[in-house]
């Protein structure tokens, strides 16, 4: 659909939204990126699954409110049947139920429709590289929810200990993730490169068995770091 020739290193993307007035311009704009090929546009979850089955596909940019099969159920199906395909949610909804439902179903990124083109393309590239990107508004909601659940009470849970082999730098990175900072924000805060931040995050996730950035936020709060 992008009008460009697919090549190595290019991300094959499906744009899913039930509104043609949103779906078609978004597909056209993303298709202008030098490293993105929009291989299909879908109006519902059934069309997404059919397009992925016809593949290959790297990333699905997913609306949540769609007929036939909504974005959360479609994400869950993709996680089970096509785990190699990353999902980035793009929606007008930023309520707890939508955010936690999508991330719990396996979405790797979550943006609101206030996001600009650069934010969307950055999230698609991050998802294609196995990283998570959350809109700032989404991060704030997630942090507030996690803090509310983890707030200590006289009978509440004690802080959850972290593995003893975490380095001071890895613990520092986890603290900053818990505060809602992006990789770039962490790099600026610690005066290191984003590549170094990614290395610390990979090591941190491996040692703690953290699944994704949302899980890292929960672990940081549970450990009393955020």
UniProtKB/TrEMBL annotation:
What Pfam family is a match for this entry?
Response_reg
Q: Which InterPro entries match?
A: CheY-like_superfamily, NreC/VraR/RcsB-like_REC, Sig_transdc_resp-reg_receiver, Tscrpt_reg_LuxR_C, WalR-like
- SMART domains per record: HTH_LUXR, REC
Residues that the record marks as modified (4-aspartylphosphate) are 63
Q: What domain of life does the UniProt record list for this protein's source? A: Bacteria
What sequence ranges are listed for the domain HTH luxR-type? 159-224
Tell me yes or no: is Phosphoprotein among this UniProt entry's keywords.
yes
- Name under which the protein is recorded: Response regulator transcription factor
Ranges where the Response regulatory domain occurs: 12-128
Q: Where is this region: Disordered?
A: 147-166
Q: Name the UniProt key words of this record, in alphabetical order.
A: DNA-binding, Phosphoprotein, Transcription, Transcription regulation
- Note whether Phosphoprotein occurs among the keywords: yes
Provide the taxonomic classification: Bacteria, Bacillati, Actinomycetota, Actinomycetes, Kitasatosporales
């Amino acid at each position: 659909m992008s009008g460009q020739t697919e090549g190595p290193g290019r991300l094959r993307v499906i744009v899913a939204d039930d509104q043609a007035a949103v779906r078609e311009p978004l597909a056209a704009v993303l298709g202008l990126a030098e490293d993105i090929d929009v291989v299909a546009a879908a109006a519902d979850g059934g069309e997404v699954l059919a397009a992925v089955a016809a593949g290959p596909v790297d990333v699905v940019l997913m609306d949540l409110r769609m007929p036939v099969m909504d974005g959360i159920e479609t994400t869950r199906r993709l996680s089970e049947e096509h785990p190699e395909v990353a999902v980035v949610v793009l929606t007008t909804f930023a309520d707890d139920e939508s955010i936690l439902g999508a991330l719990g179903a396996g979405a790797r990124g979550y943006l609101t429709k206030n996001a600009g083109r650069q934010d969307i393309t950055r999230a698609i590239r991050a998802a294609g590289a196995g990283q998570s990107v959350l809109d700032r508004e989404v991060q704030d909601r997630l942090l507030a929810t996690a803090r509310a659940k983890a707030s200590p009470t006289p009978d509440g849970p004690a802080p959850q200990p972290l593995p003893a082999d975490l380095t001071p730098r890895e613990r520092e990175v986890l603290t900053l993730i818990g505060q809602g900072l992006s990789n770039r924000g962490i790099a600026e805060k610690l005066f290191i490169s984003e590549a170094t931040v990614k290395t610390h995050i990979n090591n941190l996730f491996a040692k703690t068995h953290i699944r994704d950035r949302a899980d890292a936020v929960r672990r940081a709060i549970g450990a009393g770091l955020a």
